[in-house]
């Protein structure tokens, strides 16, 4: 076992008046909202890569964290797992997520990577049996190692494609063995830095074929979870093929996979794409591909993906409003793809970051639920489009331009604009958040 968090208690719920920094003020996992507990609604998950693998570096400075599990040995990988599951239990987080490279030592070749992963998966299975913590999703890190500098599925070298496909298979096997509820693909290097050396058509075909292989393997093995793609527009590459929800949907349609693959949407990635988080969630819902979320926030002054813990309740409430409109999570959940600031080096900081994020999400979800149950926004939305429910409105959608011109002349149509009432709607939202 580990004593990394030895001075930190299991985190209780004490309510909004509590001044105890090691207590939840808004997240009571058993509180019932819209017929489900907050634990069931939010389905919190901790990200292995940021919480336990990230060393605290940035583009202008190296490691600031000193962790007792840092090192490339299996013994230290198990120490890391001990610390991770200790944190999950202290916070009452029911799920976790990982990439293969987060949890196993880097081997000399594919075979050693696989042996290392299989050994740590067996260790995880024991920890999960002991604690009841589950796996929300697994994934493969196909972007950090230098072999992936020109991509994984989209790499110009077929040997890298083969290494990547084989790695995905082992990570899917690991996810299934641990009872994971989803499998995620994020193409961190699946893009280009310059068109001068890029064959866009070939790379898209390679990426599409890889995804088809993933879906085929899901059906071959009987995996019941969802396959998820995580969109991101840029950083580290100049342009990535999974830019945003709309781009991913077009890609899925091109390769006949729109009924097979959903999206895992990250707040920070949505902002980088020039959208809001709620826009990406709403679009995924309308397209029928909403799956799960990575919860974090960006520093809006920095202009890049800072992966901070969420702390803006109104912003989070608008996101969960769209989640509720989608019917809530099914196999997905709220994964904290969030990391400490590189100056936050103490064990307490890691716990406090999650407490703050969980409380923010709980407060946001409750506000979103109250707004949703009030139907205040939906009544306004329905009224705004009510004309389309009339005989005239329905007729338009089944007419051609000539017929519509005739209707316009016959009915002397000369429309006046109607208010969009944005300020009224914003005031409605503010009553709840």
Structure description:
The chain has 433 residues and is an alpha/beta fold. The chain is built from 16 helices and twelve strands. It has helices at 38-42, 48-53, 74-91, 100-103, 110-131, 158-177, 200-221, 245-254, 267-272, 277-287, 313-325, 347-374, 376-384, 391-396, 401-410, 422-432; strands spanning 32-33, 36-37, 44-47, 95-99, 134-139, 182-185, 191-192, 226-229, 239-240, 261-266, 290-295, 334-336. The strands form three sheets. Strands 3-4-5-6-8-10-11-12 form an eight-stranded parallel β-barrel, surrounded by five helices. Strands 1-2 form a two-stranded antiparallel ribbon. A two-stranded antiparallel ribbon has the order 7-9. Strand 1 and strand 2 form a beta hairpin.
Helix content class: 40-55%
Average predicted confidence as pLDDT = 97
**How much is the radius of gyration in Å?**
24 Å
- Find the count of extended strands (DSSP E, 2+ residues): 12
Order of helices and strands: EEHEHHEHHEHEEHEEHEHHEHEHHHHH
First-residue to last-residue Cα separation: 42 Å
Shape: globular
Output the strand order for the largest sheet.
3-4-5-6-8-10-11-12
Number of helices: 16
Which oligomeric state applies?
single chain
Strand proportion:
5-15%
Report low-confidence residues grouped into runs of 5 or more.
Answer: none
Structural class: alpha/beta
Largest sheet, in brief, is: 8 strands, parallel, barrel
């Amino acid at each position: 076992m580990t004593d990394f968090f030895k001075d930190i208690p299991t985190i209780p719920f004490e309510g909004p008046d509590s001044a105890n920094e090691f207590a939840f003020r808004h997240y009571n996992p058993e509180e019932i909202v819209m017929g489900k507990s907050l634990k069931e609604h939010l389905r919190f998950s901790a990200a292995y890569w940021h919480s336990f693998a990230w060393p605290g570096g940035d583009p202008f400075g190296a490691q600031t964290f000193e962790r007792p599990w840092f090192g490339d040995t299996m013994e230290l990988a198990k120490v890391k797992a001990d610390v991770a599951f200790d944190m999950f239990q202290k916070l009452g987080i029911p799920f976790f997520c990982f990439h293969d490279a987060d949890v196993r030592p880097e081997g000399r070749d594919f075979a050693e990577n696989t042996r290392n992963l299989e050994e740590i998966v067996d260790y995880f299975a024991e920890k999960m049996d002991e604690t009841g913590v589950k796996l929300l999703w697994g994934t493969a890190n196909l972007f950090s190692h230098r072999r992936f500098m020109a991509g994984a599925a989209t790499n110009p070298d077929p040997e890298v494609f083969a290494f990547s496909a084989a790695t995905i298979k082992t990570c899917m096997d690991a996810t299934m063995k641990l009872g994971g509820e989803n499998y995620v693909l994020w193409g961190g290097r699946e893009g280009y830095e310059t068109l001068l050396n890029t064959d866009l058509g070939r790379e898209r075909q390679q990426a599409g074929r890889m995804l088809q292989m993933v879906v085929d393997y899901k059906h071959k093995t009987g995996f019941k979870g969802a396959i998820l793609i995580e969109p991101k527009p840029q950083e580290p590459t100049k342009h990535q093929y999974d830019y945003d929800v709309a781009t991913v949907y077009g890609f899925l349609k091109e390769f006949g996979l729109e009924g097979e693959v959903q999206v895992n949407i990250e707040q920070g990635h949505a902002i980088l794409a020039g959208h809001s988080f709620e826009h990406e969630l709403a679009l995924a819902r309308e397209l029928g591909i909403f799956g799960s979320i990575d919860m974090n926030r960006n520093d809006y002054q920095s202009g890049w993906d800072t992966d901070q813990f969420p702390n803006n309740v109104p912003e989070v409430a608008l996101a969960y409003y769209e989640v509720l409109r989608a019917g809530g999570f099914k196999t997905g959940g709220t994964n904290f793809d969030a990391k400490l600031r590189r100056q936050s080096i103490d064990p307490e900081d890691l716990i406090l970051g999650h407490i703050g994020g969980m409380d923010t999400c709980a407060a946001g979800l409750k506000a979103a639920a109250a707004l949703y149950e009030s139907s205040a926004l939906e009544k306004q939305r329905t009224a705004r489009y009510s004309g389309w429910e009339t005989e005239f409105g329905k007729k338009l959608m089944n007419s051609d331009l000539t017929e519509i011109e005739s209707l316009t002349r016959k009915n002397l149509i000369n429309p006046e604009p109607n208010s969009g009432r944005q300020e009224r709607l914003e005031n409605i939202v503010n009553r709840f958040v």
